[in-house]
Design a protein that fits this description.
about 240 residues; Rossmann fold; Arc Repressor Mutant, subunit A; 2 domains; 4-stranded antiparallel β-sheet; 8 helices; elongated; binds calcium ion
Length: about 240
């Protein structure tokens, strides 16, 4: 997915040059020429990065930056023209992530943008990896009444006692329980639990559902945990 950049600059020629060069790098570019427009666009499009000029009509870049900082942590690269502006930006009083002083070369700007986006990507990947690891470590056991599903041990307990289930039964119940309350078609279940390369038909799903019901339902003939939704598929009630 191409990254989205919001360019906030009131000088038409500079705004156009920036937009042109960023688009050439494959980014999706939105533009704004006033502080008000900048806030509106940032809230609407939620860009991956904001290039923010300081001298703007209506509301200056400092105020825009301060306001946005309270709402989102999108990286902001400020474009400054004067020394006294630099002092304020560097003082991090407004919460910008980086700055460039005008005039700057396009090459320098593109390098800076790339580096900032890369940094954000790494932080996000890191956070995602960590949270995935955390959920594995803590186990995030799912409990539905007397039924427990433990994804770490790939184990199911009924009334505290382990149930003897085949790997596919485990995967099926795990998948159903993650989507608790949602109607799942046989095709979806087949695709998600058995995978694209599975050769067979949706009766496979029915058979496994029946086996699971025999294990977890009080009366498998009148299932209340895994219910059949006529003409649609199955729904896990918990
Ligand atoms: Ca300006």
């Amino acid at each position: 997915m191409p990254e989205v950049i919001l360019v906030v600059e009131d000088e038409v020629s500079l705004q156009e040059t920036l937009a042109y060069n960023l688009k050439k790098q494959g980014y999706i570019v939105h533009t704004a020429a006033t502080g008000g427009q900048a806030l509106k666009s940032a809230r609407e499009i939620k860009p991956d990065l904001i290039l923010l000029d300081i001298m703007l009509p209506e509301m200056d870049g400092f105020e825009v930056c301060r306001t946005l900082r309270q709402e989102m942590n999108t990286p902001i690269l400020m474009l400054t023209a004067r020394d006294d502006e630099i002092d304020r930006v560097v003082g991090l009083e407004v919460g910008a992530d980086d700055y460039l002083t005008k005039p700057f070369s396009m090459r320098e700007l593109l390098a800076r943008v790339k580096a900032m986006l890369r940094r954000v990507r790494l932080i996000n990947e890191d956070a995602a990896a960590r949270s995935a690891q955390d959920s594995v470590l803590t186990g995030s056991t799912m409990i539905f009444g007397n039924l427990e599903i433990n994804p770490v041990r790939r184990e199911m307990l009924l009334d505290g006692k382990p149930l003897a289930v085949k790997p596919k039964e485990y995967e099926l119940l795990n998948y159903l329980s993650i989507h608790r309350g949602k109607v799942l078609t046989r095709e979806t279940i087949l695709e998600k639990v058995w995978g694209w390369d599975f050769i067979g038909d949706s009766r496979t799903v029915d058979v496994h559902i029946r086996w699971l019901r025999e294990k977890i339902e009080i009366d498998p003939a009148i299932p209340i945990r895994i219910v059949t939704v006529r003409g649609a598929g199955y729904r896990f009630e918990g």
